[in-house]
Amino acid sequence: MTAASPVLSLANIRKVFGGVIAVQDFSLDLYAGEIVALVGDNGAGKSTLVKVISGVHRPTSGDIRMDGETVALVDASSARSQGIEVVYQDLALAHEQTVYMNMFLGRELTRKPFGLLDKERMRRESQMLVDELDVRIPSANSRIRDLSGGQRQGIAIARATHWASKLILLDEPTAALGVAETAKVEELVASLRVRNLAILLISHSLDQVFRLSDRICVLRCGEQIGIRKTADTNRNEIVSMITGVHA
Amino acid sequence: MEQALARLREMDLQRGVIYFGFLGIFLFFAVTLHDDGFLTSRNLTNIVLQTAPATIMAIGLVFALSAGEIDLSFGSIVAVSALSAAVAMQSHPMVVGVLAGLGAGIAIGAFNGVLVAYLRLPSFLVTLATMGLFAGIARSMTDLRSIPVINDTFTGIFGSGKLFSVPSLVLWTAVAVLIGHLIYRNTRFGAHVLAVGDNAQAAQVSGIKVPRIRLCVLTLCGATAGLAGLLYAGRLQAAKYTLGESDLMTVIAAVIVGGTALNGGKGSIIGALLGSLLMGMLNNGLILMGLKVSDQMIVRGLIILVAVAVSLRDTNR
């Protein structure tokens, strides 16, 4: 953790859907170069928080600051333009398209003067990125449907890494993966620390949370139960915070 | 490496279907109908001329299918736009006729598009309904009468004219295919169309304006049907409500045989051109073989069935 001001600071976030309180009074600071895990049972409010941070939902009340300045994340594009990237659980990739087109999906590079796609550059930059992150795929020309689940998640994370300048949100990044692929993706996530990005990891797997995170933030029924440094806590404490049952 | 090789083989097969089918049927007719004049340059040119409107509509349909939508109403749009142009040119200069024809196509396409994109009605049902709606409107526009088009400039540009001894319909086809291919393969719009049809959610979270893409592809279908209407009116020197009536199956078959996926995310403009020419060759060959109209329909239906089955085999894995 660095001593600088937080990359993202959430203060007293509250989100209500109709009469249902999805999240109440949530506060969290995220710093560059650290991985914070957000854990909690189903329905604890994790997804709502992800959507608030990614701009899909606006909080009912509360303050979101980036580098100390209040920001309004009104939609997914505004979150992206603030340097926030999300890696979704269900892999937001277009399967019939190539790796490089997915890497630049919605932000395709074009060439002057006619504004035609600069496929060569997208291909080159994609290849460089996957090589750099050691995501092993046949080539940037491969179609997503021909890749394994682990390779696909590798692409999704590489894409987020390429575009994020501040924060990457990982929403259950290994939920759909096998053991070996999970290990590979975890290695990739851990390697992102040195890129000076803040990483918020949502995961059901406590093993994974303990392997990867610097801090753990626990939610239960929309309520923030607490934040612990991973090094200073243990599974039993986190489990009892998640379930509300004391061992 | 093995994976890459497997992918290569698979792609070749997939892409090959239309080329082999095209070549196979061409050779078959070239041999069996050699004495009936199939191979004469005049007959071959004729095939291109006759398929020009279908090819142009096929381009629009490739965009719509690639975006995960479909248009069933383009046949009716052809009639409305040809009649609009013909009626307008009875009392106004050619430019007004062209604008009326294209405008009608674009307007109906946009109407389909708004219903699909912003009210989230399925395009299959919307365009099934508008197909009937505008077929009716085409009939009532002129009380089933045929309207002659006597403007020579118009019939020259959109029908029988030539530029540097190349027939204008060939030029229209070539230009439309080239521009369509360029937009489809080499612009952000084309990439977004494919992304929306492939995974609309992914497109959405990537900042692509999904409804706008849906509106655009259906409007484009209307525009290509409008242009097809002008080409029919130009070539036949008349407009009638029956124009475009029989194009629905031909154009859909051309597009599918040409390698465009019915469920979006994948397609080919060049494939659609070859598919359309293939349909034209079939028509032409079966007539030259001397089949009765009823037999032509049966044989054509069967061949299309086989062709579609072969080209979908891979997609349906």
What key attributes describe this structure?
heterodimer; A: 247 residues; alpha/beta; Rossmann fold; six-stranded mixed beta sheet; four-stranded antiparallel beta sheet; 12 strands; 31% helix; globular; B: 317 residues; mainly alpha; ABC transporter involved in vitamin B12 uptake, BtuC; two-stranded antiparallel ribbon; 13 helices; 77% helix
Would you mind describing this structure in some detail?
- The complex is a heterodimer of chains A (247) and B (317).
- Helices cover 31% and strands 26% of the residues of chain A.
- Chain A has 247 residues and is of the alpha/beta class.
- In chain A, strands 6-9-10-3-11-12 form a six-stranded mixed β-sheet, with helices on both faces. Chain A has a four-stranded antiparallel β-sheet with strand order 2-1-4-5, with helices on one face. A two-stranded antiparallel sheet of chain A has the order 7-8.
- The radius of gyration of chain A is 18 Å and the shape is globular.
- The two termini of chain A are 31 Å apart.
- With 317 residues, chain B is mostly helical.
- Chain B has one domain (16-312): Orthogonal Bundle (ABC transporter involved in vitamin B12 uptake, BtuC), CATH 1.10.3470.
- In chain B, 77% of the residues lie in helices and 3% in strands.
- Chain B has 13 helices and four strands.
- Chain B has helices spanning 2-32, 41-66, 74-91, 94-118, 123-141, 152-160, 168-186, 188-198, 200-205, 210-236, 247-257, 269-288, 293-313; strands spanning 147-148, 162-163, 166-167, 238-239.
- In chain B, β2 (162-163) and β3 (166-167) form a beta hairpin.
- In chain B, α1 packs parallel to α12 and α2 (41-66) runs parallel beside α7.
- Chain B is globular and about 60 Å long.
- Chain B starts with a helix and ends with a helix.
- Chain A binds chain B through residues 54, 76-77, 80, 86, 88, 90-97, 101, 105-108, 110, 115-117, 119, 138-139, 142-143, 146, and chain B through 1, 3-4, 7, 182, 185-188, 190-192, 194-195, 198-199, 201-208, 261, 265-266.
